[in-house]
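Example 3.
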Amino acid sequence: KAGVTQTPRYLIKTRGQQVTLSCSPISGHRSVSWYQQTPGQGLQFLFEYFSETQRNKGNFPGRFSGRQFSNSRSEMNVSTLELGDSALYLCASSFEGAPQETQYFGPGTRLLVL
Amino acid sequence: GQSLEQPSEVTAVEGAIVQINCTYQTSGFYGLSWYQQHDGGAPTFLSYNALDGLEETGRFSSFLSRSDSYGYLLLQELQMKDSASYFCALPGGSYIPTFGRGTSLIVHP
């Protein structure tokens, strides 16, 4: 089975721009979660999508948004980029997103905001 | 909210046993997970404990005490490739999934 894939792997943007990141979950997985990882704040949960609906949301401003398509692929968007948005963005998939399920992480998209 | 505390760094020698502790605070407990992350890599799932006691998976074991809000990851027969960051985490359930800040394990020859 192919793993979780994320595109692009690296991205450089300037302040004020917007960015869209993509995540393709493992085939058959319907839950996709997004995380931001920085040296200062660690791994922080952004949101989770299940069957095209946002099921859970972390404490991030509205500039961070996401969506999920009928094939379970997910995108996240960050508008009006700030320097502090520079981070590794990880997505993770699982079958139904239940607490006891293994989350499989993708390799991440490393975003640098200049 | 939820929070987890774990040591920032642990060092050990090859072949030894090391224990990484994790204490947590939550209003609703759904289990405690452990993840490994090598530099530049993605987190990979190691174990999940929902009930008290020890879960063993090869060289890795994880322990949970719900009454103490405490768990640990035990790594035996340490190898150089075990040098990585280890995270304890509280899965979402009704709450936001929360990860500890991570413990950097350095294995010396």
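The two ends of chain B are 41 Å apart (CA to CA). Chain B touches chain A at residues 30-31, 41-45, 48, 50, 87, 89, 91-93, 96-102 (CB under 8 Å).
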